[in-house]
């Protein structure tokens, strides 16, 4: 005797079976807003980059890569963003390990992330007064007899590097701290019980678990540093040593009024960032392939 077929599931049940319940659908309006705010400008800029003044399809890109004054901005930006990101990670990692063991963790964390509340422009203005030729740093160095003349660290590569380091460290530190505190402390205790020293525990337990998370931290910090513009103008030398790719895009748009070329430079800027991010995220798969239960890393 054949069993009778039950009633067909409703649309709501079918969507819920695929993970699209009522709560999930509430995210849909926000997703549409994000698409409107980010996806449309990107597609419009990409389309505009293929409409140069000379009428050729790839004219803007050919002009960019044939002019050393333009394509050298990629290398200039990389010379700033990559070392700053690496140094911020190297500084944030030991500080995060120290902070996680302190009682007043929130107070120290608040102090460390204070520069992020100032903004790039205020930090740059402060650096002009402190690291300028007549600033406190220069006067202190001359008073101590360490230099016979004024020491000027602004309007140079060093000035932009320091500015990115100051404004980028809080962001990198917060991300690193979240991964460090997310690792189960019982793993370290078990290793210590078995006789592993601090270096061995860091090398064989913490580092493998942290590397995937540090890769994500590197990517986010790199993207933040790569988009440098105010620092390169205020405390750098925007016509020469710190002429980054964002300055080239700005000049094309607001000095030459060539929005098609500016869009092409912006696309190149985005794809060069994406290439570094993809390379870093792809390499993290080689770091740790064990179970994912060790923590956030």
UniProtKB/TrEMBL annotation:
Subcellular location, principal:
membrane
For biological process, the GO terms are: transmembrane transport
The subcellular localization recorded is: Cell membrane
Answer yes or no on keyword Lipid metabolism: no
Q: Name one GO cellular component term.
A: plasma membrane
- Keywords, in A-Z order: Cell membrane, Membrane, Transmembrane, Transmembrane helix, Transport
**Which residue spans traverse the membrane?**
22-43, 80-99, 111-137, 157-180, 205-226, 259-282
- Record has Transport as a keyword: yes
List, alphabetically, the SUPFAM superfamilies matched. MetI-like
Q: Which domain of life is it from?
A: Bacteria
CDD domains, per the entry: TM_PBP2
Which family is this protein grouped under?
Belongs to the binding-protein-dependent transport system permease family. CysTW subfamily.
Q: What is this protein called?
A: Sugar ABC transporter permease
Organism per entry = Muricoccus nepalensis
